[in-house]
Amino acid sequence: MPRAGMLGRPVPVRVATVRAVAVALAGAAVLAGCGSVRYGTAGTGTGQSTGNVATPVPGHVAITPYPAPVPSEVTGTGPTAGTPPAGPYAGSRAAALSLARDLLSRVRFPPGARHSPGALPGPLRKIQPGLIGADSADLSASWQVPGTMAGIAGFLSTHVPAGMSYEGRGQAGSVGGAITMENVSYELRSPPRGIYQARLNLVVAAAGQGVSAVRGDAVVTWYPARSAAEYVSPGRFRAVTVTSAAPGSARALTRTFTSPAVIAGLAALLNHMPARPELGPVSCPAIIVGTRAPTLEFATAPGARPYLVAVQSRCPAGVQVTVNGQPQPGLAGDISLTADALLGIGPKGA
Fold this sequence. Notes:
alpha+beta, 2 domains, 6 helices, 6-stranded antiparallel beta sheet, Alpha-D-Glucose-1,6-Bisphosphate, Chain A, domain 4, single chain
């Protein structure tokens, strides 16, 4: 199907267009909050269990310093070579494991709880923490806790660890109509820089008369490092072509901008996106064939072959980047709102 407005003569940029970039970038920053670097400090806990106050059991591990920012100097000979602005932080497996230990130390139990490594009932030994991608780390711990399975699960549901949000409670492992396990899960509200997401899942099972066993799995996902090549040095480009499709239409709208303000704004949008974590196998719904995804194409001159291309991906969500035809790590962010605003397209789904 033909597309309107293919690469051709640059379109003059007006003041209203520059304003649209500013508005779009502000909105895109909000959208990117679901997949952008978030800042915060992990709690420390007390490491003691006294009286009738629910506190972390012994075993707290202090958080180690997180990695430094991405290198400030980008080397190379292409148009993107140069010094990028202060960008997102990358995490690491070591930082994820350190945070996982800290999260396990925050679990709050009734008095009498104690660590019990290796003393899990059969059902708890078979539990899998779920699909773990290349950028995730899983750490587990186990405890013996006085009380019934239902009573302990109820306690955990109402005593949320510091800095975390309660996600829910469930049951599993029915044998002969009886529930054999209950689980309670939490999510860290403000992950430290470099960390995409941190979750804690607790599974409770009976372990004898008046005693329950609890298995805890802390799964932490970090932002991987970006490639140096995919940072955009706006001063090295003289044109950017923006493409997107109106809601419900396979007909793409395309426009080339030469305004330094527009180019710099779009460069900043991409430069502040972290790399997209690899989260394991993803099930993608059917995508309508022929629909043009929002695209940004940076070129050294109007009409020149694009050197850096950023394309919005629906599944997995994020931005795919190629530099001089070479694929780069995907970015966790969204360029749809910005592209649509520049092209005068209304909000999708409106």
